[in-house]
């Protein structure tokens, strides 16, 4: 028997052993909703009433316990009192489930996160499979655990580990969870329910202890030590994201439970959860969550019944920083990789880079020696195309020389099988130009990896009008296997991400040449939430790369680019960035950056070449104005990307900005953030600056039209035709 709702169902089956087996069924991951929790409560209460039930086992259907609260259903909290988390965490989870006069055991497999883990922690024991995934990742959505997790997790694993798991949104495997007491036993999936039933009976018959999690105190550190841990956690949270309040609120709630008792902690948790649920931060992070999932839906590509073809062997042509990084990412994802270079010296350097990347993981304990040897064995270095006869994909990652790239693709066509995908990692040169000497234009695709390729979580996939949808589907599948979020875009200079952000550095250069302090600009941008400012970023990627990419944009968009010689002047003086320990900053041996007073002479020379004078207003520019003058041109270019149909869905640009450029996720992405300010405001500011500083700031037609109508910038474009 059981109860069902529009958002999943609960089944209960009572066995001859007196165990009520309650199963959560809500495909695909048994996510929770208020309806599911009410049905779970009804089944629980029925089990407590029945005389033939001695104990209860809760589990989930089809290999998952419960994948947390359905984010789209959280809005149900707006209902009456019975929908508020306080009611659920205290009246249901605590006073009915945990305080029941019959013992309960959670049988855990697969995803057991968020509300799913909170229910499991309210049971009197937890049995898990070794590969189950357990965690409380609510902070990634701008909220805190709302079903008692802030109070129960510290009592099961200790305050130190609980803070780490909640603040870092850490997901742990079942066998690791067992080592620090989150679960009580590890068994195979086949034995899971049987073991849980036996364990529940053992508690009922007093052969095992009946443990109420909320009343446990043995894992909580002494009060003095606990206060030190909380103080340290607050300092770390403020250091990592000074603009975010919800990590600090989470720490406050945990502290309330330790000092005022678990019941007081539960009520504070409920109050804080309700407040955070409707915060701008939560709305922004929930938007990014859905936007990230939405990038895998591409009209005309993923909705026409295509299935990814098997890709087993991938060749990478070019072993520089990008090429070796791509090779590292591929072998870490279990792909066989051929790495081609022009001579033995370059090849050994490239293979050395891959080994160094893997050895870094080995030293940090993220990889075993056995895994290291197995992974590096997947890499084979070559100097010719002889072994390309059975590759499924080739990724070109050579220097930005059009003629050289054209020759490579012409050679690949001769040596690779007919199904082989030809991908270019270049994002500044038009794909049609790269493919000029090849006949197989339907196999040409852009695969823009961000550096370092094995660490960055995004893959920008660019297609021409001739690219086969099958090729895009295949590359998306490879990206997902590499644990990267694929963003599919149209062809063009800079594709979508680099094009959208080219004004980022140019706006900063414009301000510096007109009198704004360079280091103040970087400070304002990091205070906004970016990992680093435009000048520190230029040093990181290398000033040579900045010149190469900047030149492409100046050539292709001459009417709206700001032409400054500052970066070239630094490069000419062998100040190339981090690699030479001098650029916009100076660097010590550990790559710590410090301002450099010598920079002023380069700025003065650049100012003289540009023929501009210092604007006194820009010398004392408030941080808010700096931020707007840097980011509003980025929004303007993003509008052009949408208007031209390079990207169809504005939310894809939000994901691209967050995952590719480090735009703060708690602001929702570049277009979501822009809409929070309003198209009219952004357009009026750009118009004001364009009258003073020229075409660089001039609002594009898309932005101007939407500002005139008061239409959100993210609203679907009516006439933008998809590239396919």
Give the secondary structure arrangement, pairings included.
Elements: E1 2-5, E2 8-14, E3 19-25, H1 34-49, E4 55-60, H2 85-98, E5 104-108, E6 111-113, H3 115-122, E7 125-128, E8 133-135, H4 149-157, H5 159-167, E9 171-173, H6 174-179, E10 185-186, H7 192-204, H8 223-240, H9 246-260, H10 262-277, H11 280-294, E11 313-317, H12 321-332, E12 336-340, H13 344-363, H14 369-376, E13 379-382, E14 393-396, H15 402-415, E15 421-424, H16 431-434, E16 444-449, E17 458-463, H17 469-481, E18 485-490, H18 497-513, H19 518-528, H20 534-541, H21 543-556, H22 566-572, E19 585-587, E20 593-595, H23 599-610, H24 616-619, H25 623-643, H26 650-661, H27 670-677, H28 679-693, H29 701-709
Parallel strand pairs: 3-4, 4-5, 5-7, 6-8, 7-10, 11-12, 11-14, 12-13, 14-15, 15-16, 17-18
Antiparallel strand pairs: 1-2, 2-3, 8-9, 16-17, 19-20
Helix pairs in contact: 1-2, 2-10, 3-4, 4-5, 5-8, 8-9, 9-10, 11-26, 12-13, 13-14, 18-25, 19-25, 20-21, 21-22, 25-28, 28-29
Task: Describe this structure as you would to a colleague.
In the central section; belongs to the 3-hydroxyacyl-CoA dehydrogenase family. Residues 313-490 form the 3-hydroxyacyl-CoA dehydrogenase NAD binding domain. Keywords: Fatty acid metabolism, Isomerase, Lipid metabolism, Lyase, Multifunctional enzyme, NAD, Oxidoreductase, Peroxisome. This is 3-hydroxyacyl-CoA dehydrogenase. Pathway: Lipid metabolism; fatty acid beta-oxidation. The longest helix has 21 residues, at 623-643. The protein has 29 helices and 20 strands. Strands 13-12-11-14-15-16-17-18 form an 8-stranded mixed sheet, sandwiched between helices. Helix 16 links the parallel strand 15 and strand 16. The model is unreliable at 75-82 (pLDDT under 50). The chain is α/β, with parallel strands linked by helices and 724 residues long. Helices cover 48% and strands 12% of the residues. The protein is globular, with a radius of gyration of 28 Å. Helix 1 (34-49) runs parallel beside helix 2 and helix 11 packs across helix 26 (650-661).
């Amino acid at each position: 028997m059981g109860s069902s709702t529009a958002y999943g169902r609960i089944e209960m089956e009572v066995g001859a052993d007196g165990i009520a087996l309650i199963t959560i069924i809500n495909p695909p991951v048994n996510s929770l909703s208020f309806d599911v929790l009410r049905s779970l409560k009804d089944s629980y209460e029925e089990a407590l009433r029945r005389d033939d039930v001695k104990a209860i086992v809760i589990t989930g259907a089809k290999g998952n316990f419960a994948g947390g609260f359905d984010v789209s259903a959280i809005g149900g909290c707006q209902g009456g009192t019975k929908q508020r988390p306080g009611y659920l965490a205290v009246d249901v989870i605590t006073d009915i489930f945990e305080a029941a006069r019959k013992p309960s055991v959670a049988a855990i497999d697969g995803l057991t996160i968020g509300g799913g883990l909170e229910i499991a922690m309210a049971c009197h024991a937890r049995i898990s499979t070794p590969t189950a995934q357990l965690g409380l990742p609510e902070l990634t959505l701008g909220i805190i655990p709302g079903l008692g997790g802030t109070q129960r997790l510290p009592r099961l694993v200790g305050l130190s580990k609980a803070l780490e798991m909640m603040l870092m949104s850490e997901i742990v495997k079942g066998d690791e969870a067992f080592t620090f007491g989150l679960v009580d036993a590890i068994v195979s999936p086949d034995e899971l329910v049987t073991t849980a039933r036996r364990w529940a009976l053992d508690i009922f018959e007093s052969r095992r202890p009946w443990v109420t999690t909320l009343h446990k105190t043995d894992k909580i550190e002494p009060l003095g030590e606990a206060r030190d841990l909380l103080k340290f956690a607050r300092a770390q949270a403020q250091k990592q994201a000074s603009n975010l309040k919800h990590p600090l609120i989470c720490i406050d709630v945990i502290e309330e439970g330790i000092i005022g008792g678990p019941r007081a902690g539960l009520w504070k948790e409920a109050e804080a959860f309700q407040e955070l649920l409707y915060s701008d931060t939560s709305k922004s992070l929930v938007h990014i969550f859905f936007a990230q999932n939405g990038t895998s839906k591409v009209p005309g590509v993923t909705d026409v019944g295509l299935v990814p073809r098997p890709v087993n062997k991938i060749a990478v042509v070019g072993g520089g920083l990008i090429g070796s990084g791509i090779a590292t990412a591929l072998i870490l994802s279990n792909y066989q990789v051929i790495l081609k270079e022009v001579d033995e010296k370059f090849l050994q350097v490239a293979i050395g880079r891959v080994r160094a990347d893997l050895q870094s993981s080995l030293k940090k304990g993220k990889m075993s020696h056995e895994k290291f040897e197995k992974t590096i064995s997947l890499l084979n270095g070559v100097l010719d195309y002889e072994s390309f006869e059975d590759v499924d994909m080739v990724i070109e990652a050579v220097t930005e020389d059009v003629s050289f790239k054209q020759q490579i693709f012409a050679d690949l066509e001769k040596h690779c099988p007919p199904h082989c995908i030809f991908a270019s990692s270049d994002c500044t040169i038009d794909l049609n130009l790269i493919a000029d000497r090849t006949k197989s234009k339907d196999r040409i695709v852009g695969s823009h990896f961000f550096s370092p390729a094995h660490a960055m979580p995004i893959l920008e996939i660019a297609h021409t009008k001739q690219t086969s949808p099958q090729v895009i589907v295949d590359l998306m599948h490879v990206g997902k296997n590499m644990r990267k979020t694929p963003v599919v875009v149209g062809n063009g200079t800079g594709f979508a991400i680099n094009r959208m952000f080219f004004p980022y550095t140019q706006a900063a250069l414009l301000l510096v040449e007109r009198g704004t302090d360079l280091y103040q600009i970087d400070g304002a941008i990091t205070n906004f939430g970016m990992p680093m400012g435009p000048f520190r970023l230029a040093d990181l990627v290398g000033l040579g790369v900045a010149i190469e990419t900047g030149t492409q944009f100046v050539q292709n968009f001459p009417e709206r680019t700001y032409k400054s010689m500052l970066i070239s002047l630094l490069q000419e003086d062998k100040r190339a960035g981090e690699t030479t320990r001098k650029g916009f900053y100076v660097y010590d041996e550990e790559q710590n950056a410090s301002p450099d007073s010598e920079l002023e002479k380069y700025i003065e020379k650049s100012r003289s070449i540009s023929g501009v004078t210092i604007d006194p207003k820009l010398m004392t520019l408030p941080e808010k104005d700096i931020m707007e003058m840097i980011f509003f041109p980025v929004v303007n270019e993003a509008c052009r990307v949408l208007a031209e149909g390079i990207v169809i869905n504005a939310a894809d640009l939000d994901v691209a900005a967050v995952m590719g450029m480090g735009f703060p996720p708690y602001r929702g992405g570049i277009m979501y953030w822009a809409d929070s300010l309003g198209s009219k405001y952004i357009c009026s500011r750009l118009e004001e600056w364009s009258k003073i500083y020229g075409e660089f700031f001039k609002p594009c037609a898309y932005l101007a039209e939407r500002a005139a109508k008061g239409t959100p910038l993210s609203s679907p474009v009516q006439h933008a035709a998809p590239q396919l």
